Amino acid sequence: MIQSIHSTLAYAVLAVLVIAVINAFLGLSSKRNFTKNDRSLSLVVLILSHIQLVVGLVLWVTSPLGKDALSQMSNAALRLTAVEHPLINIIAIVLITIGWSKHKKEESSNGKFKKIGIFYALGLLLFLSRIPWSNWMA
Ligand code: HEM
Ligand code: HEM
């Protein structure tokens, strides 16, 4: 149950995050104004990633591939789901949250696009680096 929520929400988070990153860099290069829609898109990414964080924490406590696997760290697949994926993704979500927070303090549209673009792109790269693809796509 929790696993299927986490697994489905992963598609949503990654999809809106990719769109938000592309949107921010397009906004930056075209020098247009940062509008209400740009803000909403960035906020949807923030909210979905925060929900995914909470669901992920519950999964880590309940799944056999989470904390219960901590005693088997010589197994690379278990090390990924029990340690690397949770740790790196928490860092990624922190970066996205910092980007959101910093964009609010920027006065200019250019500054807002830049903060969202850079921090969200870093978060995206970290997510993609530690997804348990073989579990997900199987
Ligand atoms: C936006 C961030 C995240 C994305 C995109 C993501 C994505 C995924 C995906 C695609 C899987 C494989 C699911 C499957 O087997 O079908 C997975 C598994 C897992 N995730 Fe995440 N995750 C994120 C954040 C987190 C966080 C923050 C934690 C913990 C604090 C976490 C804990 C876990 C655990 C323990 C598993 C393996 C458990 C299992 O499959 O039973 N995830 N995640
Ligand atoms: C462990 C759980 C969570 C932690 C540690 C966390 C942490 C944070 C932090 C530090 C911020 C501040 C960002 C800023 O400075 O603007 C924030 C903002 C926010 N979080 Fe979370 N969050 C969590 C769970 C959630 C959940 C479950 C949701 C939604 C269902 C959520 C929705 C939001 C929203 C909407 C904001 C943006 C506020 C705004 O600037 O308008 N968070 N969160």
Task: Walk me through this protein's architecture.
The protein is mostly helical. It has helices at residues 2-30, 36-62, 76-105, 109-129, 133-136. It has one domain. It has 5 helices and no strands. The longest helix is centred in the middle third of the chain and has 30 residues, at 76-105. The chain is elongated. Bound molecules: protoporphyrin IX containing FE (2 copies). One protoporphyrin IX containing FE is lined by residues 3, 6-7, 10, 13-14, 49, 52-53, 56-57, 59-60, 63, 65-66, 81, 85-86, 89-90, 127, 131-132, 135-136. Residues 46-47, 50-51, 53-54, 97, 100-101 line the site of one protoporphyrin IX containing FE (HEM).
In short:
The chain crosses the membrane at residues 6-28, 40-62, 82-101, 113-133. The protein is mainly alpha-helical.
Write the layout of secondary structure elements.
Elements: H1 2-30, H2 36-62, H3 76-105, H4 109-129, H5 133-136
Helix pairs in contact: 1-2, 1-4, 2-3, 3-4
The structure holds protoporphyrin IX containing FE (HEM) (2 copies).
Total number of distinct structural domains:
1
Structural class: mainly alpha
Order of helices and strands: HHHHH
> Mind summarizing the main beta sheet?
none
Keywords: Membrane, Transmembrane, Transmembrane helix
Transmembrane segments: 6-28, 40-62, 82-101, 113-133
Protein name: 50S ribosomal protein L27
